[in-house]
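Quick one, T. Sequence first:
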Amino acid sequence: MADLYAASKSGPFILAGPCAIESREIALKTADTLAGLASKLNIPLVYKSSFDKANRTSVTSFRGPGMEEGLRILSEVKAATGLPVVTDIHHPEQAAPVAEVADVLQIPAFLCRQTDLLVAAAETGRIVNVKKGQFLAPWDMQNVVGKLRAAGNEHIWLTERGSTYGYNNLVVDMRSFPQMQSFGVPVIMDATHSVQLPGGLGGASGGQREFVSVLACAAVAAGADGVFMEVHPDPDKALCDGPNSLPLAQVESLLRKLLALWEVARG
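Structure tokens:
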């Protein structure tokens, strides 16, 4: 964990994987491809996928397999690929058992101010990645960082995922990267949730995946330390966040572009 955090402070890194754990087969297929790319391109990569998506648009939306089965699959992904993993938690009591498997605990954007959840995640000693709420200014995240540090954890990432400025739309203010980096933590660009159209399909969220590369490149040029992206072998058949997910076959070309931009942006 310490090596992963040190790497995130010294060079570019990636968080990538399907939105939710759909099946063991999809998880292992996606992780194997991503592990190969991480080795080929010599870039730290964390496999991401959620065992439960608790804030879906509709009560009938697919949420994932649940914590027990989800952690079993994530454990298998780690064993098979050697990749570290990150997954969401929604309740304080989930922190400790999830930390037995996950290298990074992720706090969803809507829960980023929940003090008990933040403290429980921090107390595990794992890296804590907090998505900036769509309703917060970048400088408001200083209080989130303060809660984690007060609980004894200095291994903190913050993730920009866009702000709500209008109905069913999100906008990313590129000034947020240096503003949040001023707190002394790496800042990540969520390139796929930022092109989401929350509730845009009525009973589900829409998305504009054609702009994933545009926003990822813009964020790296603005100084983002890492990039988060939801990827799927066949996004049009994904059970969660397909409209804003990047096809797995397109990941390598985007990573090569981002690495070239990082080299320029970091001088």
